[in-house]
Amino acid sequence: MRLLDRHMTLFSGSLRTLLRRESDRRRCADSPYAWLFQPYMGEELVSLACTVTPTQSSPVISLAAVVLSQQQVHTSRAFVITLSSAKPPDSASLRRHHLLCEAGAVLTSNSDNLGALVEFIGNRPIVGWQLEQRLGALNALLSKRLNFALPNAQVDVAKLHQRQLRRLHPEVEAPSNFAQALACWQVPAMAVQSVLGEATASALLYIRLQRIMAQTA
Questions:
Q1: Which one of 53, 134, 157, 184 has the lowest number of neighbouring Cβ atoms within 10 Å?
Q2: Quick one: which of 125, 90, 109, 137 has its CA closest to 7?
Q3: What share of the chain is helix, strand, coil (3-state, %, to 5)?
Q4: What CATH number corresponds to the domain at position 89?
């Protein structure tokens, strides 16, 4: 975690987020999920990608989580799930969502399915592109069903990309588009129209930026 530790300021989030995490930690102190709030001492991270499609009844949420280390993305260790509270969700919206996300059948957003997701993520740090915006609907669902939002340390790869580009090329305006950022650092797009492809590409971009920062430190 040495490279990760050098950029801990990117994990802090807003004061509101920190207060929410502390409130959730106290609420879950005696629950089976209390361990998720403990500091992570290992070398792995989890890359997350999340896509939300509104429907007339409730949103459909597709999410992919991929395990990575500082040197490698472990695509064999991935968790992909699509959730909705509706039974069944609006068919036209669902077809459109499937085309965009390629995330499989829709499961009920109940405690068991959400519990499986947070158990897979564990207390490992999370990386991803524009995490705060992407995970809002998921955190709202987790708060409703499990009484806590994701408590993990998080690093927004979009902010890491902008920070490093400004450092190396202050005269260049950092692109905010994910595909442009991948091209900027010569990272394969990995079929980013799917949530699994986006999570994998985010992980590769994170590793690439960490290597560049190590070389230019």
A1: 184
A2: 125
A3: 45, 20, 35
A4: 3.30.420.10
The number of domains in the chain is 1
Residue 55 near residue 86, CB atoms below 8 Å? yes
Which pLDDT tens digit goes with each residue over 1-52? 444 444 444 444 567 778 888 899 899 999 999 999 999 999 999 999 998 8
Q: Domain span at residue 41?
A: 2-216
What type of residue is 19? L
The 10 Å Cβ neighbour count of residue 185 is 15
CB-based contact 44:174 (threshold 8 Å): no
Reported pTM: 0.86
**What is the distance of C-alpha 111 from the center of its chain?**
20
- How many separate helices (H) and strands (E) can be counted in the chain? 9, 6
